[in-house]
What does this fold into?
Amino acid sequence: MSTFALDTTETTDTDDAQNGAKDALPDLYPPCPSDAPPAETSSAYKARVVLVLASLLLFVVFYVGLLFAAGYLVYLTLFEMSWFRSKAMVLNIGAIAGAVMLFLFLLKGLFHRRGFSSEGLIEVTEAEQPKLFAFLRQLCRDAGSPMPGKVYLSHEVNAAVSYPSSLLSLVWPIRKNLVIGLGLVAALDLSELKAVLAHEFGHFSQSSMKLGQYVYIANGVVGDMVFGRDAWDRALNTWKGADIRLSFPAWILSGVVWGLRKLLELAFRGIYLAKLALGRQMEFNADLYAVRLAGSDAIVSGLWKAERAALAYRDAIGGLASVAEHGKFSEDVFDHVERSMSRLDTHLGKNPEVKERFAPLLAKYERGPRLHFTTPMEKVSALWESHPANHEREANAKRTYVAAVSDERPAWSLFVKRKGLRKRLSRMAYEAVGLRPTTILPAAKIAELIEEESGEMHQPDHYHGLYESRIVNPGDIDKLSAELDEQIASGTIDRAALREKAAAFTGKALAKKMAKLMELQDQMSLIEALQDGAKLKSKTVPFRGSDRTRNEILDCAREVAPELKAARERVKKADPAFFRYYYALSADIPAAREELWQRYTFLRDVQGLIMLLMRSERPLEAVVDKLRSNVELSSHDVVQMREILSEARESLVEVVRKSVEIAPPKLALLDSETRLDRFILPETIVDPLEPEVITGPWIGTCVTQFNKALRRLRKLHFKNLGALLALGERLDPTLFPKAEPPPADPEP
It folds into this structure.
């Protein structure tokens, strides 16, 4: 993997003026291929356009019919029904109110506006970034596309076309905006950035973009009525809460609206599927614009690098967020993305399964007509999930291979005052994940802190996953330590025997135990999946040494379950064996004995807090999933939800209360004076639920606090566990055999 040395020094205003004086900046604009074919629309593209038009037409007829019928119902209730007769006054007023409410329900979607939000973006102008705009102008001329209305920069690994949408935008031309992610810029060279932006300008030039805009607005209209809940719904609920003599029309209207929402949901899904089909063809067509302007390799290489950059970005943000929990923030997030990219091959190549899954990203991209991406990459794409898979896009881009000269200078060359941009967007990257930077440090210092913390949590390979996904239980350490102290005092302690018991969980013996455990866990996972209704890929699959059918695999549960239980019990014996041995070894080393005791005590206490929260973890996740699904909630659902939310909050209260008395041992980035309760949850716990009231903000705060506390407790657990393992290995450096280096890959 090749990396670019990025110049992040500031440029003066004079430099900018001089740069702006250069018009087209041909030295920074890669030449277009001389023999590229035009980007023509395919028959599949045209067919999808017809499909979307038909679905839109059917929806318009259906929707206008509903709207007309509701309007006519309002007319009937107002002018054809006499409400002067006192006996029928309540009934007639209710009918009028219900008809008007139904009409407003159907009408309100038309006035919904989905404006373009520039939150998390920085708008740049030609005066600020003359090189970039000169590049864009030349690219627009070559693409036959209008210039973007505005150009924004983001911190993400992405590039996109964005625009506001409303009914007005269907009849009044609105210039589209271009968003360029600096996370993407950091990964690409000039040719690749040209190809990616040419793809976006291909969208600018597509007449079907207007059709897509109609679909987008139609989906917005339907989506708001089907899934949205607003003042109209609150008014209906208020009406339903009145005396039944006044509210019975509201209950009737509620049933009618429920039926309408189900019908409109079907229309929504139909239009959406048609739009997806057209969207795929639009992406293929936009890629052909990129091929025409930058050649076949640039767009495919850009996809390859963008995927790698997305993985590196997530890795970098994870490390930065972990250190940010201790109040330390980096001035340059992109520096960490570049560091992650430089070690991506090593990081992904460690695990054989991961290495196989990401094989197209780990293999170096070679220019030429030969395809790089393969079908298994279908579900791996981290970017643009609505787009076709990378192997399909590459096949489309290389169907007629177009060679082009590659300009490998970094895409950062187009930007001036890069250091300032990186700082501003770094702050926005933190804010995007809910963090507010306070103590900002140089990127190199933050990288050291990340390395220190991750090193503390690292469990060496020679443990073979012994401490993953399970509670560490050495037993009653007070009782065990008393027994050992008595043996040490009487001189009857047998350290050799204790070492032998601990050594049974090291080296090849441990590898064998863990391999068997993982094999049985995989077998049980398949059995449980089949019990839940999953299907096999074929009639029979290899299972426990032979090809078996679904029913034969299910019958094996009687064998697998007890074997798995026994394997887990064997592995658990490692915990008291290591505690006994390390405690005996530390008898003559006071500092080691004290640290060992502190860490085992903290391990026990923190695991207790984690288990306390874990009782509510899955029920709380189920509540969040149900709320996100936008399904109608029954009264039973609401009662059950209140119970789960209240229990989760009470668990959180208990965890914070208990943590006050727990003193953490020395851990990286954790000050000795830090109170555990204030680290677990710095803010005040959300107030208890009010009777009969559950609000969205309360649920959001409760879930956020619960997840934050659980995440930080788990982090402390792994930090302390890593330090505990390191202490044990310092006490006996020879206990764990040194792992043999893996065999070198054969020469190709």
